[in-house]
């Protein structure tokens, strides 16, 4: 059976938006999702494809979280095949060599007129970024903590939902979806 992966934005960070993963797995299982698995407490959920398009699954998962935990959490959902394609089509081949410094910023929709589409990439060197299908690949060779580029993606300056995962997490989610 095919899998979907839900990526929650901004949970379990510094005591804010606390969601226990065990209870989240139970909530989604109660709502009919099969073989629900979570990976780390930052909101990565793999489950059997419920037969709905990922955008509708995202709305349903967000509604379940709001109903159970009283939190409005943005959710982005991708299929297993979309994650595999994202890995295969990576336009920044130097990134995976340093997976903790390489991000996939998942977008809820295609962006239009955003800062990263208009800015000169040279402003962020040595950091680099490239667009994919509803994803921005971000490589920060000097680390994420001091990166102006990584900070801009964290500032919520987009009109769409964006949530980032490092490359190690992306690969682990694909592995979980393949089990």
From TrEMBL:
It comes from the Bacteria. SUPFAM superfamilies: SP0830-like. This is DUF1697 domain-containing protein.
């Amino acid at each position: 059976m095919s899998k979907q992966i839900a990526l929650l934005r901004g949970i379990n960070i510094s005591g804010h938006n606390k969601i226990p993963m065990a209870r989240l797995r139970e909530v989604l299982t109660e709502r009919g999702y099969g073989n629900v698995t979570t990976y780390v407490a930052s909101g990565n959920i793999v489950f059997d494809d419920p037969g709905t398009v990922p955008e509708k699954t995202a709305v349903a998962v967000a509604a379940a979280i709001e109903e159970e935990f009283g939190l409005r959490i943005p959710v982005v959902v991708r299929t297993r095949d979309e994650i595999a394609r994202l890995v295969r089509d990576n336009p920044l081949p130097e990134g995976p060599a340093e997976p903790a410094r390489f991000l996939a910023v998942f977008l809820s929709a295609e962006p239009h007129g955003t800062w990263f589409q208009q800015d000169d990439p040279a402003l962020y060197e040595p950091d680099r970024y490239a667009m994919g299908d509803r994803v921005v690949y971000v490589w920060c060779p000097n680390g994420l903590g001091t990166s102006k580029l990584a900070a801009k993606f964290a500032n919520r300056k987009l009109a769409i939902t964006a949530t980032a995962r490092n490359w190690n997490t992306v690969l682990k989610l694909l592995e979980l979806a393949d089990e």
